[in-house]
Design brief:
globular, two-stranded antiparallel sheet, 209 residues, 7 helices, disordered C terminus, mainly alpha, 2 strands
Length: 209
Amino acid sequence: MSKPNKGKNGNKVVMFLTLADMFTWGPFLIISALSSIYLSKKLGVDTVKFVGIGTAVYFFTRALFQVPMGHITDKIKGDRDEILLLATGMILMGLPYTLYPHITLPAHYYGLQFIFGIGACLNVTNWRKLFATNIDSGMEGLQYGLYETVISTTTAVISLLVGSIANLGENYFDTVMVVSGILMMVGSVWALSIHSVKQRRTNINIKKK
């Protein structure tokens, strides 16, 4: 009898969760750093103020829904809700960036930050729950280390690429934002792929012996 999560290529659930974060947080970390520069061309001289308010909108939204989200998913048996909500969160996180080129008013930016906050709430709570539950006992340090290595390397590569492309001009900057948003949304495929791992620990179909 094979152990939960285990296959010929190791813990597939952890692998899919790592790939999901690679697509989501890899682009986000560099894009968020460039947002103030990008928005300065959209919103004018008070950009720092607008970005500060937008950041507050994001974190307040995330804080407001984080606990209710965790409470709801704890009440539902199995992990399908976590997987679907994680995928939905990734889509909601990427969507605002595809709309960034259309920002003309601060209110547009605040609205997109609200959507991003909802997406991050769905993402973070459910990703952490799935990862913590499916990680292999006795290999926690190794698997967290591999995760951090993949995310850090990906972020470094994306940062170099995005910085070079965005520096080419405003039109390229728009392209960077849209493509980054699409990549974040495409990452939801990896989250949904967790369903293919039949013997995952969070699957209610695994019978306790």
